[in-house]
Amino acid sequence: MDVNKIFNLFNGDEPESLREKAQQVDVLLDYKNHPLFWVGMFKKLIQNHQTFNDQLLNFFDKLDEGLSKVDVDKAGEFLVFNRAYEYIQKVDPDNLVTQEALFRFADIHLKLALELSINYFQEHEEYEKCSHLKKNLEFVKLLLT
Fold first, then answer.
1. 8 A C-beta contact, residue 26 and residue 6
2. What CA–CA distance (Å, rounded) separates 117 from 89?
3. Is the model's pLDDT at 75 over the cut of 90?
4. In terms of Cα–Cα distance, which of 112, 131, 95 is closest to 45?
5. Which positions ≥6 away from 104 have C-beta within 8 Å?
6. 92 Cβ neighbours under 8 A, 6+ residues apart
7. Do 28 and 71 form a contact (C-beta atoms < 8 A)?
8. What is the pLDDT of residues 5-23, one digit of tens each?
9. Among 46, 118, 109, 38, residue whose Cα is nearest residue 79
10. Are 98 and 35 in contact (CB under 8 A)?
């Protein structure tokens, strides 16, 4: 993704045809299909999962449905970790483009997010997911050394 191309959309030069501008915008808005987005969303979801769980508990407390807080907390964790995995499953550390994404986000927080995810899926005996997460974790550890 070229940041200069984004800002060139708003320059004061002679405008291009509307069709050309629309094509540029379509290409630039395709960021959701990029490894940088996938790694960033995974990291952000895992980092903020406790906040999400707290908000979920507050929501159900207001409804006064008599739901167990433990069950709501487990449901919140299930949602967060599985949604986060949907993003990271697209990231293959053997691919050069995804290696760059992992390189840009590689820090202690990404390492911790991967470790927390591995622990969560180990508890639920989803070892295929653990294997994929472990592969990404090992790559991130190499980047951090």
1. no
2. 12
3. no
4. 112
5. 36, 39
6. 98
7. no
8. 555 655 555 455 777 777 7
9. 46
10. yes
